[in-house]
Amino acid sequence: MRVLILGGVGNMGQGVARDLVKQKPVTHIVLTSLHPDPARLSAKLRENEKTSMIKMDVNDHEGMVNAFKDVDVVVNAAGPFYKTAVPVATAAVEARVNYIDICDDYEGTQILFDSEIDQMAKDAGITVLTGMGSDPGTNNILVKWYADRLDTVEAIYLYWVVSVAELQGAAWDHSLHMTLGKIPQYIDGKLVHVEGGAGVVEEQFLEPLGTCHLRYVGHPQPLTLPKYIKGVKNVIIKGALIPSWVDEMIKEQKETGFLGTEPIDVKGTQITPYDLALKLWEKIPEGRDNGPQSSGLKVIVKGDRGGKKVTYTADMVGRMAPGTGIPASIAALMMAAGDVTAKGVVAPEGCIDPDKFLGAFLSRGARIHQTEHIASMFELNS
User: Fold this and answer.
1) Of 7, 96, 199, 370, whose CB has the highest number of CB atoms within 10 Å?
2) What is the distance between the alpha carbons of residues 61 and 103, in angstroms, rounded to a whole number?
3) Any idea where the Saccharopine dehydrogenase-like C-terminal domain is (predicted)?
């Protein structure tokens, strides 16, 4: 099994590669980067005989197609995905090679599902699996696992927290972009668009994260989960960057125009405020409280079973790179084993067997704190 990882030198790409190199079916991993400096790789990857590194530009369509033809699966870990998901998936379809990404931007996901890419992939007999990271990814599969144990699903709440101590590179672009403008949520059985960064709620996460204040964010699940979880009325996703000063500063930047995407003239030079803010955010956290080296997920699924109201909750906490990379690695191995049979564009909850995935995920040391609450007659009548 030969795998090519776009953005393989980055934090998330190395998270995928570190798991794949341990797997016997994997014979070679091609790590790509626009600037392929071996010094950026961890020693274990740099010195592993299974890995090699090449230069690749996601804007070079022909170069991608030619490289993709030599592998069995392409994993796109090169964000931000509102810029990269569509061109990389298009090249994979043309090369007739299975594709996985960790896309967490709803715009890329929407285009993949609604454009000709879906039919082209079906015609080519390949799978375009989008959103196979942590969020989206693992939490989508947990939703499916819980939904399969309910007669009906009423509401899905997906919450996440990322410490800026874990952010670098394209992750900063996504972190700002996901709050801009009107973003999708699925409310009362309809896809609606709400103001990004609004709707603040307080939620408790596992230690060391504690109590966090979450806001609406632009992620793909309100678009994908209703496709596969029939009858669901609400799919809400909210997130937070911690410490709390980070989200508060982003809110101020948004309100004062520092995240504007239209160029403005500054002493005869055209400057886009968003680009300037993004550059500054790479420096702003230096010397400040950057929070713990941890991120967290919370999944809440509410529904009905046997006439009783049931609520499932799952909590996880850990490092972002392995938490994002391992799910993509597991999916690649499942594809190679013939466990992913759907063709065309598909989300994790539409093609990944939850039991097989969670078994592999837990075998790698993942820990999921789960609860099941069944409402009593007293609660139902109160």
Assistant:
1) 7
2) 19
3) 217-364
